[in-house]
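Amino acid chain:
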Amino acid sequence: MKNLKKDYYNPFFSHIYVEKAVLDHPRTKRILQKFPKANLISINHYKDVFCRKGQNFICQQQSQNLILGAKQGTLIYKGAPVCQSFGNEEFYYTSCIMNCIYDCEYCYLKGMYPSGNIVIFVNLEEIFDQVRTHLNDHDMYLCVSYDTDMLAMEPIAGYVEEWISFAKTLSHLPKRLKVEIRTKSANRQFWQKHIPVPGIIYGITLSPQAVIDAYEHKTPSLARRIASVKEALQRGFSIRLCFDPMLYCRDWRQRYHEMLNQIFAEINMEEIEDVSVGSFRVSQDYLKKMRKNQPDSTVVQFPYQNDNGVYHYPKDLAEQMEGYLVNRLISKLPEDKIFLWENKESKKRNYFKDE
């Protein structure tokens, strides 16, 4: 019956909506070539489809459509307070793609966007131009995959390769660009195809397999992600391990203990650039929508604590979870390679001297 139920949905990207202004754009043509049987629909603006009323994000994720358009106005944004800056003062992000092919129940995109469909902006040159403008004045730490998993989308969009090519053109500028590409993918072919480029760091999110099974639908297993990290390190790529968000379950300590044992057995932690640690947190506005759309999700319906518009675990629980992970990590990494959300130095020091 489950397979029969899935038969009611169209295949992924069976319909592709394209803004009239970008129909002849080279990136549009390149992407459309990958879907020769898709129904092509011409539109005036991506928001006519993406932002229309009455959509159901959860249902749309079962049969995602693709929207190709051009992003207008401000293209580079200051980093959000719920995100880690890793000690970088000039912290920004940009959105080349909106929404993700993965289906993590706790993902803030489910509360941020009205649609479960995926938007790809084909006017990357304009984003690159704004980055160059910033680099005339100051260094930049730029996150380019907050609103999607760009590496998972690489077979469709090819945007990681484009960011690599762009980064290679900046050596003459007075300031430096550092790009973070965050992913849960296990795209080992990517590491085999490309070579490391200075200034680009790949943040690989790792979770216990029980968490992946329960909440990170359609994502690769922990074993596959670890194998991908191992391959990337062997080929010299700059890799950040992201234990963020940590998610609570009744046996969370045992689950994270087993995960770390598996990681330490396979990965030489001395080769890791750094690690990110943070328990789950989300904007109150996003969580309100997420709870409405996912009434049966335990991770979404958890009784979080609200502080200044941000929902998170109660302080004692968050400190237990983060503290446990940090105290395991410092046996393998120096303190200055372990980054905690909000850069709470007093809390960080307590973590390091607990055990």
